[in-house]
Write a structure and sequence with these properties.
328 residues; eleven-stranded parallel β-sheet; 10 helices
Length: 328
């Protein structure tokens, strides 16, 4: 999508119209528990919807953009017993749900197999809403997780083989990510694919292909996130994609998925970059923004949109529109 900022702003009249016609003039703002967030409009809860790593800080892939550092922000629960005990504590502290993820094995999967029974017990005993963030996953495991009571699944979808090898350090292909999408759909787990803008050293490479691949399936929602240069990782000095580049991917998603909720997720640069990204994302037609800037909240209000706040994960935006029949 080759256009400058002025051309893009004009183009967003079309993408906003698509959002408004399909969802009404409202926007959802999310602030889940893993990061403190406070504006004059909303303050996050430290216990409402935490994130958990079933591998602790361990990850075999050590992707160049992350190097396992994101796992440090999660509660560790490295055995089924520890997961049960942690969820019991979280429930006592007021949690209504949690995101369960972890580092990857060398084949790109997250080792959920030994946690299936404990997830089922968490669901039965504590009634928590459970979201899983999977790596590459088989239908057999996806089916077991569905039967255990998993509410939805998040999957990073990569649309370029070189990026998979160079950044993820993974001997896999785009086809393997498509197979994971197919497995989750066959298992009937509502799936919220994530597209990471600028993953290939800050440059766009495969994002549109990822969106078109997702289009073959029935996503509950689509999340757009963006590369952040994380300190002490191999890519700490790489510049992130510009706000305009991120917004163009969002606009493309809006055009491809006119009646599927689209969110700007929590992973994106902060500071002035975030202020501009959030503004452009709103203009491009997102339904939800995680940890929104105050300026964007005020922009939405000033344009006459209803603003709705939640401490859940932004992937849960699809729950707001479950009664709607998707069109593709």
């Amino acid at each position: 999508m080759k256009m400058d900022l002025k051309e893009f702003i004009r183009f967003t009249e079309k993408t906003r119209k698509i959002r408004d016609e399909n969802f009404g003039r409202k926007i959802h703002f999310y602030a889940p528990s893993f990061m403190y967030y406070k504006t004059k409009y909303f303050c996050s809860s430290p216990h409402f919807f935490p994130s958990i790593s079933i591998t602790g800080e361990a990850c075999a892939l050590k992707c160049k953009h992350c190097d396992g550092r994101v796992l440090k922000t999660m509660y560790p629960a490295t055995s089924p017993e520890k997961l049960l005990n942690l969820c019991a504590k979280l429930k006592r502290n007021g949690a209504i749900g949690c995101l369960i993820s972890g580092g990857c094995l060398p084949n790109g999967s997250v080792p959920f197999e030994k946690f299936v029974n404990s997830i089922a017990q968490v669901k039965e005993k504590y009634g928590l809403r459970i979201i899983i963030h999977t790596g590459l996953i088989s239908y057999e495991l996806a089916k077991k997780l569905k039967e255990a009571g998993v509410g939805s699944a998040l999957l990073d979808v990569i649309g370029d083989n070189e990026t998979i090898r160079e950044i993820y350090n993974l001997d896999a292909s785009v086809e393997d990510f498509e197979n994971a999408l197919a497995a989750l759909e066959k298992a009937e787990i509502p799936t919220i694919p994530h597209v990471l803008v600028g993953l290939h050293y800050g440059k766009l490479k495969g994002e549109l292909k990822a969106l078109k691949m997702i289009l073959k399936y029935k996503p509950a929602a689509v999340i757009v996130i963006a590369f952040i240069p994380i300190p002490k990782t191999p890519m700490e000095t790489v510049d992130p994609p510009s706000p305009l580049e991120i917004a163009k991917v969002i606009a493309a998603a809006r055009m491809l998925f006119p009646s599927i909720p689209i969110a700007l997720g929590c992973m994106r640069p902060k500071g002035e970059h975030r202020i501009k990204t959030d503004e452009l994302a709103f203009m491009a037609g997102v339904n939800a923004i995680a940890f929104p800037t105050e300026a964007t909240i005020e922009l939405a209000k000033n344009m006459g949109y209803e603003t709705i706040f939640s401490s859940l994960c932004c992937s849960e935006v699809y729950m707001e529109f479950q009664s709607r029949k998707p069109s593709y």
